[in-house]
Amino acid sequence: MTGGPAAASAASAVLAAAAASGVRRLWFNSGSELTSFQEASAQARHQGEPTPQIITCPHEHVALTAAMGETMVTGQPSMTAAHADLGLLHHGGAIHNAMWGDHPIMIMSGYPPTRAESRNSPVFWKQQRWDQGSIVRQYVKWDYKLSALDDAALVVARGFQVALAPRRGPVYLAMPEEVGRHPIPVGNPVPSAQRLGIPTLGPGDPGVVSEVARRLTTARRPVIVTDRVGVNPHAVTLLAELADTLGVEVRATRYRMNLPDDNPWHTTAPLDEFDVIVVLDHPVPWMPAVERPHEDAWIGWAGPDPIEGRVPLYELRADARTTADPAAFLAAVLAEVGAAGPGDADAVRRRRQRPPAAAPRPAGGNAAVSGAPTPALIAAALDQHLRPDDLLTWEVFDTAPVRRTKPGTLFEKGGSSLGWSVAAATGASMAAGGAHAVAVTGDGSYLFGSPDSCLWLQQQHDAPVVTVVVNNGGYRTGTTTLAAHYPDGLAVTEPTVLGGHLTPSPDFAAHARSQGCYGEQVVRAADLTAALDRARTAVARDRVPAVLDVWVPEHLTGSMDPARRARPAHDEGNTDG
Predict the structure, then answer these.
(1) What does the alpha-carbon distance between residue 385 and residue 372 come to, in Å, rounded to a whole number?
(2) What is the DSSP letter of 555?
(3) What SS3 state is found at 268?
(4) pTM of the predicted model over 0.90
(5) How, if at all, do strands 53-56 and 25-28 pair?
(6) Is the confidence at residue 435, as pLDDT, over 50?
(7) Distance from the CA of 419 to the CA of which of 10, 167, 277, 441 falls in 20 to 30 A?
(8) Does an H or E element contain 94, and which?
(9) Contact (CB, 8 A) for 170 and 104
């Protein structure tokens, strides 16, 4: 189809088709059945053939999450390789995040040899599963087990075609050990996902577009509710233009920078105050148990999957739904408004004169702030510290006070599995050519994310990241949620809430320093700004990862007492059981 001659093994064909489909990196975890990829990569590089760069990763969760960071920045597909069923399982909750983050990643894992002469280790029997793809089937768009009879390159091209088709998402490929080394004919053209054809979405049903345009121009108070417009920078521009033109309020999440934070049309008003609601690519625009639109409100819905087919039960109502690309849909609505005129010109004029009150912003710096750090003060310090082109990944607190005005600089995971932020920042920084990246995470989620592996990856590939650990000494689910469920229970009255508090708290700064990184513990709010500056210097000048262990008040108790987080003393003379 395209490209040069195929190489002489199935593994070579897999890598060639991946490269032809736009894959730049293979986030690689070692396995005895994956050596064919290492050899195929070396041969391709020696021959000057296109091939993904192998990025060695010490942990599968980190590998898949870093691949997500790469796709967030490039918009192109990526690829991971992991060892048999064990490596696939080690991806853990990252598989959930890959699905809900709409990441076009081919998740590969090997499969143990089945020929008698190759089964020279007991593990080859233990790792053999009836249906290895069933491990991930609920979370991927496509899965396939390659055989020696398959055209390996075509299988890979097909997998990426599915991954890149709207709505984008991960796919899975199992590669048996014998197949990877299996010789294939040389000289066949290399297929690609693009050659097979990637479908695109248009603006949606013309009738829905016209109805949305009419409703937005005649409504008393309309709102656009969005989560994922910011994936496409052009869509951000169009959304801002529509809001400014018609005086339409926008309720946007922080999944991406969906609307510049200095735009006056941001709103946090309850949905029941609006008479027209347009949902634009948002998987959960409201939770009926928490809030509901007004019964008389008209609701239009547009996006790559306007019925959220990934969810078994979906009860959110709409008067009109259409499958559409958000940018194309916004452009069509703007064109319809321009062609039809302003509709109710008085209503539009009144709305444009009264944009929502701007959310309060920190008053520049916090050098004079005393007392303990809090999430709000950390956000204020980050708002002062970050430059427009810096990348910010987050998974711990509300980042609304941290102003982001440039598309592609704010990233949240989209799913609900913790341990995402640091590895995602690493992959994003690498994909962005070494852009300065700050990852904000909690102490529990930092531990979930395999920090040893993250710091090693940053050092090995010269992609140092500033990690801000918001350390409250525990898990919200096991402390504040416990107290909400059992306010008069016994568990919350104990000095250390078992299952909730992380006692003693790990010394994350010392851990970073032990790995040759910059590590600093921050316990005073007045030190936040200077600590962030020192961390930036460490990654920019010294090229080492930086970890700021920022203590905030402990869940439930509000304690900042170091003794509460110190390792308990043991009486070495006590020999009782």
Answers:
(1) 19
(2) T
(3) coil
(4) yes
(5) parallel
(6) yes
(7) 167
(8) helix 94-100
(9) yes
